[in-house]
Design goal:
single chain; FAD/NAD(P)-binding domain; disordered N terminus; eight-stranded mixed beta sheet; five-stranded parallel beta sheet; binds ligand NA7; 546 residues; 18 helices; 20 strands; alpha/beta; 16% strand; globular
Amino acid sequence: MSITAPSEQVSTDTGSYDVVVIGAGVSGMYQIHRLRELGLSFRVFEAGSDVGGTWYWNRYPGARFDSESWTYGYSFSQDLLDGWDWTEHFSAQPETLRYCNYVADRLDLRRDITFNSRVTSAAYDEAANEWETVFEDGRRTRSRILITAIGPLSAPTMPAIPGVDDFKGEAYHTGLWPHEPVSFEGKRVAVIGTGATGVQAITEIAKTVGHMTVFQRTPNWCAPLHNSKIDPETQAKIHASYDEIFAKCRDSYGCFIHDADPRNALDVSAEEREAFYEELYNSPGFGIWMGNFRDVLIDKAANDTLSEFMRRKIRSRVQDPALAEKLIPTNHGFGTRRVPLESGYYEVFNQPNVDLVDIRETPIERITETGIETTDASYAFDMIVYATGFDAITGAFDRIEIRGRGGQKLKDKWSEGPRTYLGLQSAGFPNMLTLVGPHNAATFCNIPRCIEQNVDWVTDLLRHMGEKGLTRIEATREAEDAWTQHVHDTAERMLLMQADSWMTGINKNVPGRNKRTFMAYAGGAPRYREKCEEVAAAGYAGFVLE
Ligand code: NA7
């Protein structure tokens, strides 16, 4: 399979390649490394001015891992592992971006990337069996294979509130945070949104802000992160045990070092349960979500015991009892939405210069030139921070006009929810492979662990195609139907399917995102990996290869 000159020969203008990759975040970067082995011509196009994806864009104050840093880095290269020391157990964004740059430098990745290239459309040319990809500035490029590495949470959404463009003060979306420092000192700052991002940003902004008003629509169940510096002795231990760390991640449901406890919550005594919850609450990271009793995310009665424990914790940390009640979720149980990990979030509301506006009680009516008006009051601000999240998982695809066979638009095909085979391809879109796509285990994972699996699988597929002289791969409708059904069946048993969240496809800021569907894959990473391996071993069963 070779349709072109080597990638170095074409830099930024129109060119043709065997493979085009969209995105130079954590998945695109690793894909470069693996593509180099295949001897194919390829080019990576990235909207940003440098590598890092999520860590390039999300520079908001307080942005930080919820994964243990030492489980997050790439595992494929001993050299990369040896040459990097994480300074904290849960690294902050600047360090993570430095890590991405370290990898890009060490592997000399940038020579295969064209930056400042936002893709606006990609169309499959059936006669030529090629994809034509078009950029914002009119450049276009052709390739036999198109790999999307565009990230699951990369299309930020502003709130659908009248007047959102009218505000004359400083306004920032957390996912498009400026590269220059932003000061909160002496300023009246509004924050809209209390998801994982809002919780981190609010906690950090509170340290220096003049006055902050938090506009909360739905409170989330937040648990302590318990971050700390890595001391030299621990650093040495981490370096000596990467094999075990990654093996443990590999075997666990979400590729974390935390995996479900084999006991059911209601099979143990109330005292034992309480002691276990207390232990998890006082331990770092996602243990309380991913390492809890095996049934707390499945069985409502089990989940109730944990929610009750968390309720008591919130009440014990927030001094004003009425305010504590506002911060307690009432419409979903613990862990049924993405759990924000926090470092003093609840205590922020004990500060005299912080207010909470519960917008379920007093909805925002409009944003004005000077601030925010609710049904109850008019607030003046110097700055509004939008921590209002993303058009998750399919949003980044929808921003690109993707047309497959017969001119079918991917956006139309997925209008009732995504339909995929293995979260890696959609029928009718031959030769387009979607790293961390919808229905892919990587969307519900300690993501680099699953990214490595995705990229390895795609690389093996391309090698197989090259060896066999195959130039076209397309998932069958039957395989897609069966996988999509399996995705929904595995999600159905989870309580999270009942909650409104980006995982269940609900986003009130985006027209049409009101149909409950499962966007991720809840069968667990080991099961997903097994299925991908089976498919490959059976000669890519469920795909038509020509
Ligand atoms: P999320 O988790 O989608 O949170 C967005 C927050 O913004 C959430 O509290 C929303 O309330 C709130 N929101 C969104 N639109 C509005 C409007 N129109 N008015 C008021 N409040 C609004 O995004 P994050 O960035 O926090 O996290 C995304 C993922 O990134 C996270 O899971 C991590 O994996 C990394 P709602 O809950 O919808 O009522």
